TrEMBL record, chains A, B:
Belongs to the PlsX family. PANTHER family: FATTY ACID/PHOSPHOLIPID SYNTHESIS PROTEIN PLSX, PHOSPHATE ACYLTRANSFERASE. The keyword Lipid metabolism applies. This is Phosphate acyltransferase. It comes from Clostridium paraputrificum.
């Protein structure tokens, strides 16, 4: 399998990207990596490592798209950027997949315009996996589509289900609709209409899931519009971070004995942090486009990029794209 | 001041309501309480306490509206319910305010239809105060208006600001728009349009606030549509609860030393729990209606009801209703 990776995408690029690539080459046989970015910088970075040179190619790209730029404009104008070059490698069939830790907006726009949608899919959706108390769960969409029609949500459910069942090697994944009430008639215009579409489908639709219950992880795939999905994602990250900081604040101002307690508890917190660590999970798949497109977290380190590569390989091996194409061609 | 309280509203009613009323009568001079509910049950409950009998009246109400009922239908049909009776006490001028821990839907519908809106207010909004790391913050709206127009959000900002500044005795409260990006042009159709309205106002509008940053408490008043606001509220509660349970899970399965650490840390967690305790905060004001309407948490205990009564007294003393009426009459 050949994977294009945006060498300049992410807060810690290019170092973290190259580190992740080298780790992946050692761990996963049969994968070839195409790194896009300024040739001299990439070569310099790779030099630090010992790695199988026949399985890495540097594709020169002189420009970089920053997260502050207007995504659509940047993708159109910066044809020599690391992200656009990587997208073209996929578009022209040289690579089978793309990974980027760069501007989410540019990535989504680029995947949609350059790679294109699967026939029958109205709106591709970004669908990260998140850690819950009783298991991982997936939210579709978390920001690619901020204004949605009910039928988009029905498609998000189909795509999310295919991905979740294949990646976690399970059947009959439970699908829930994010809503601010449990009963069928609750919610806004969008969720009320989406509920009616979802209950007609022949998958395991469990009904509305209230935001309070999302983080239990009891429901596998949660569908929602991109605005609410992004709010769910960011509130989860933000609340966890705030709570831990508040615990630290309290410990800091506490007397000696609780401080000692905190020291003894360290291994517990460490274990918990691993559970919450996005680096373990890989990236978020952009579902509904014609190729495998993985958005890595902006703050990814080497390990996170390596795991995104592992996820990409699995995405390919499990034939998710073909299943999705069949599902949606059928629909048309 | 005369306050009507729904004697049958809440998971622990009538016991918790009566307990809160009795505590409030002892703590706050000059307040008179009108409790609605089945006369015999209320009298039986009050008998348990020693209290100033001249400051409590039982208003017989034979029906109860449950949280499973259709709110609008229930308010229309159950004219002898504890909540509708309490609303009429306010409507007819016998009482100055209403508190209920019952069905949120019925409370909001009842306040809107029976008590009515302030002239000039398009949509009243439910606006709880929440604990952040660096201070309390307020979210307007958290569920009264699931489908919003931009101008509603501009009004939420005005109402929230008046309430926040009066209750926390501060000036120049910061107002933020909940949005999934920091830049002006980010968001969905609603937030983009609302941003333009908010920046024209002569209050301290600080721009978009991403969900990740809400729980810091750095921005005082956050405006959003009721669907997203409810998601924010419930994700915050749910994430905090999940994280604490995950900490407990880990401690439970940990060896002796971390377990000992957890025991030593108990006072720290206790202090933190007080910060997160809705019982300390009181209830959520329903802003934009013609009287003081406070929605207490469904799981309120006696202390929570007492604090909701304290909040109601403060709401009255600070002249919030008059300020709001002036603000919106001016607008018309």
């Amino acid at each position: 399998m050949k994977i294009a990776i945006d060498g300049m995408g992410g807060d810690h690029a290019p170092q973290a990207v190259v580190e992740g690539v080298v780790q992946a080459l050692k761990e996963f046989d049969g994968v070839e990596m195409y790194i896009t970015g300024p040739e001299n910088i990439m070569a310099e970075e790779l030099k630090k490592y010992d790695y199988p040179k026949d399985r890495v190619k540097i594709i020169d790209a002189t420009e970089v798209i920053s997260t502050n730029e207007h995504p659509v404009m940047a993708v159109r104008k910066k044809k020599d950027s690391s992200i656009v070059k990587a997208l073209h490698l996929v578009k022209e069939g040289e690579c089978d997949a793309i990974i980027s830790g760069g501007s989410t907006g540019a990535f989504l726009a680029g995947c949609t315009f350059i790679i294109g949608r699967i026939k029958g899919v109205e709106r591709p959706a970004l669908a990260p996996i998140m850690p819950g108390r009783n298991g991982n769960f997936m939210v579709v969409d978390v920001g690619a589509n901020v204004d949605c029609k009910p039928q988009y949500l029905a498609q998000f459910a189909k795509m999310g289900r295919i991905y979740y069942e294949a990646m976690f090697d399970t059947k009959n994944a439970s699908i829930g609709l994010v809503n601010i009430g449990a009963e069928e008639e609750k919610g806004n215009e969008l969720t009320k209409a989406a509920y009616q579409l979802l209950k007609e489908e022949d998958f395991n639709f469990v009904g509305n899931v209230e935001p309070r219950d999302i983080s239990t992880g009891d429901v596998n795939v949660l569908v929602t519009d991109g605005f609410v999905g992004n709010t769910v994602l960011k509130m989860y990250e933000g609340s966890a971070s705030t709570l831990l900081k508040m615990i630290k604040d309290e410990i800091y101002s506490a007397p000696l004995i609780p401080k000692l307690g905190a020291a003894l508890l360290k291994p517990v917190f460490k274990k918990l942090m691993v559970k919450f660590d996005y680096k373990e999970v890989g990236g978020a798949p952009f579902l509904g486009v014609n190729n495998i497109c993985i958005k890595a977290h902006g703050s990814s380190d080497g390990k996170a990029f390596k795991n995104a590569i592992r996820q990409t390989i699995l995405f390919n091996e499990r034939g998710i794209l073909d299943t999705m194409k069949k599902e949606f061609h059928k629909e048309k």
